[in-house]
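Reviewer comment 2.1 asked that we show a complete input and output for one of the modelled complexes. We chose the sodium ion case, as it is the one discussed in the main text.
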Amino acid sequence: MNADLVVVGSGLFGLTVAERAANELDLNVAIIDRRSHIGGNAYTENEEQTGIEVHRYGAHLFHTSNERVWDYVNRFTDFTDYVHRVYTRHQDEVFPMPINLGTINQFFRAAYSPAEARALIQEQAGELAGTDPQNLNDKGIQLIGRPLYEAFIKHYTGKQWQTDPKDLPASIINRLPVRYTYDNRYFNDKYEGLPVDGYTAWLERMADHPKIDVRLDTDFFDEGHDYSRSAVSGQVPVVYTGPVDRYFDYAEGDLSWRTIDLEQEVLPVEDFQGAPVMNYPDADVPFTRILEFRHFYPQRNYTKDATVIMREFSRFAEKGDEPYYPVNTSVDREKLLKYRDLARGEDKVLFGGRLGTYKYLDMHMAIGAALSMVDNKLKPHFTGGASIE
Ligand code: FAD
Ligand code: NA
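Response of the prediction step:
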């Protein structure tokens, strides 16, 4: 084995670590992934029939206010001026999201000023004023009032969790943003956009370095390859971005995740819904939203004969499913503390990324956390001999 560092997982966390280790620390890096492609969940591919770029693991919108991360990602790709906006289809009527003055005035058939709308919502939320909501349903009503909550939040959240919001803990939501302007820009970050040549081109550029050896279809826990757990254990530092419970053979039990079933369809129309994302917040529709990928890149010359859509169905993950969002119950948090102790005791192995830390991380957070790991752990070790733990 001739690697100075082994990185398990080629998502944005692993790619950032590998890129910095090769370029800044001048190390030989092996990066392995069990999947047949790099990039983790940010991976995209062009749909065969239409050539339209499809996000295989669900829609990925890049946004950040972190200057360091923005400078860093711009070394590998330019970004378009795409601005994310979401609409929602409730009882055969389409409203702008997140809930804003446009949503409110359309919903109540009114022309409220910002102050009037604020007063109305406050009055409606007053139904449960002064109470301490014990479940998500009461919390939602207390935050934005029953009418808007029941139309746009209740069943959407129920579908995401396969659970009646009356049976979900109030702690799942702290706030429900309501904007008293017509601004329906989805993200508030300073920078936003989509990679001009697509995600996969960006991700491949990060790994394109003579000192980075990428091995796909290679599982850390399988024997018979140079960078298996048993081959590298204790020999060479490892940055592990796979599931932390899997690393310890589920010794403290399984951490629970939600997953999404994605149903892709090519339709023989130029434009199906006129927007990249349409939410479906009603109980009688089984999916939570529909993506239409052509709208992520209006500047591209995509075919006018067909379009690609993807329906999203949310459910609890079982073993073998893709883990997407941590469920994070109090039982999960107890297990996580035990796994963190085990991780600290694991010599020469650093745990990172969303699977390795059991945290939902946006792309910019995964990149930022990886840059910090390089600064705070890898650089002191490789340039000053500090131990890695
Ligand atoms: P991952 O991308 O999950 O990469 C981990 C990699 O490790 C995978 O490729 C996996 O195959 C590999 N691996 C695991 N176990 C092993 C093993 N034993 N051996 C070898 N390899 C292994 N972020 C945004 O900023 N904007 C968005 O709009 C957005 N939308 C999202 C939508 C969904 C549905 C999901 C799930 C995430 C979304 N994200 C979004 C988050 C984004 O995907 C993450 O920030 C990013 O995936 C984090 O990268 P990572 O490297 O930590 O994990
Ligand atoms: Na460790």
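The pocket of flavin-adenine dinucleotide (ligand 1) is lined by residues 8-14, 32-35, 40-42, 57-62, 219-221, 241-242, 260, 324, 353-355, 361-364, 366 (CB under 6 Å). We note this here for comparison with the apo prediction described in Section 3.2.
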